[in-house]
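task queued by scheduler; priority normal; single chain, no ligands, no partner chains; default sampling; output format set to C-alpha cells
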Amino acid sequence: MLDSLYFGTAKPGDVVTAEKWTAFLNEVVGQDFPEGLTSWTAAGRWRNSAGVLEQESTYVLQLAHLGGEENDRAVKQMIARYKRDFTQDAVMRIRSQACRSF
C-alpha cells in the first residue's frame, strides 16, 4: 500500500516549521512506521470550506507499507494528531496499491 499525505503548514498566527515537522516525523510517524518514510516540501494550494483559494507550503509524506487495519488506523491517528496539534482543517490522503521491493 502507498499512502501519500499532504500536510499544510499555515496555522493561526504561526506556521509549522521544519523543526516542528521533523519532531512530528520522529515522535509520531516513526513510532508506527519504523521501516522508513519519504518526506519533502512542496507548494500547496487548496480551496477552504469558505470557498477561498489558499496557498501555503506543504509537507508531503509518502509511506509504503503492507496495508491492513493496523496501518490504516495508524495513518488515521497520525492525521488526527497533526490536525489537532497544528490547528489544521484537513490533511489530504491519497491511497493506492503499490508493489514494493528492496
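post-processing summary
- The helical segments are 18-32, 68-85.
- The radius of gyration is 14 Å.
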